[in-house]
Design a protein that fits this description.
binds zinc ion, 6 helices, 169 residues
Length: 169
């Protein structure tokens, strides 16, 4: 059973900080009403930055609200993906997280796989990232899931095929 008093305080503090920040972003966006073209262009750029910050804030607020809900429901600290306990160290670092380190790593790898499919031209760079992620898992002492091990083998095989296909005749 995870002790929820501390993360609850942390999450609530972060939530009010984010809400305050979002309001000041809104105020600033509202205040941007210049007449001058040049000023308008600068402000538009600033607006984009502000909006980006605002969106990131909204994503975090959503995650915090979900974490607070899990506290209320008594399921805080249990991985949403595999049902195992999330380590205390991870929760101390990322109190809003809903997944354990291996699952987060797995999700990161899945995302990379999608990227590899979408951007085949960047395949080599992405594969390198993928290998790093797998190495990170090992460094964290996490068991590398079977399917990812198979994937790693597959990648190595592809690489070897590539080398073979690109061999000068
Ligand atoms: Zn998990």
């Amino acid at each position: 059973m995870t002790d929820v008093a501390k993360p609850k305080t942390q999450l609530e503090a972060r939530l009010s900080e984010l809400n305050k920040r979002l309001h000041s972003i809104e105020d600033e966006l509202d205040a941007h009403q210049s007449k001058d073209w040049e000023e308008l262009a600068v402000e538009r750029e600033e607006d984009e930055v502000l909006e980006h910050l605002g969106n990131a804030g909204l994503v975090e607020i959503e995650a915090i609200n979900l974490a607070l809900k899990r506290i209320e429901e008594g399921v805080y600290g249990i991985c949403l993906s595999c049902g195992e306990d999330i380590s205390e160290g991870r929760l101390a670092l990322l109190p809003a997280t809903g997944v354990c380190a291996p699952c987060a790593q797995k999700a990161g790898i899945a995302l990379l796989m999608e990227e590899i499919e979408k951007r085949p031209d960047d395949r080599h760079i992405l594969q390198e990232e993928l290998r790093e992620k797998i190495a990170e898992m090992r460094a964290m002492g996490l068991p590398v899931p079977e399917d990812i091990l198979r994937l790693e083998e597959q990648l190595e095989q592809d690489e070897a095929d590539d080398l073979f296909n690109n061999m000068p005749i």
